[in-house]
Amino acid sequence: MITLPKAGFLTDGKKFFDNGDLDSAEMNFKKMLHHNPEHAACHYMLGLVYLNKNHINDGIKEVEKAVKKVPWKKEWRETLIKAYDVIGEPDRIKQFDGGVD
To answer: What is the pLDDT of residues 26-83, one digit of tens each?
Structure first.
C-alpha cells in the first residue's frame, strides 16, 4: 500500500479537470504519479489534460500508458483512437488489439 503525503490527488485533479482548471488538474495528477508512477487512471486523466491543452503527442503518450495497463477500458481506447485520428495515424490502435471485445 502506498502512503501519500496528502489524500485526494486523483479526486481533486478530476474536480479541477471537470471545472476547466487544467493547470491545477495537471499538477494534481503529476503529484499522484510522482508517488505512484503506475497509476493507470492518473495517466489517463493527465493524458486528457494534455489533449485538452492541445499537447496531442504528450496526451497520446499518457493515454497509451493507461491503456497498456488497463486495456479493457473501452472509453480509454476510444480516446486513444480519436487522438491517433487527430495526428493522422488511426492504425496505431492495432498495437492494442485484444484488449477489448
So the answer is: 999 999 999 889 999 999 999 999 999 999 999 999 999 999 999 999 999 999 999 9
Single-letter amino acid, residue 52: N
In one-letter notation, the amino acid at residue 21 is D
**Predicted TM-score of the model (pTM):** 0.88
Distance CA 33, CA 39 (A): 7
Q: Write the Ramachandran bin of 18: left for phi over 0, alpha for psi from -120 to 50, otherwise beta.
A: alpha
Return the DSSP state at 56: H
31, three cell numbers = 503529484
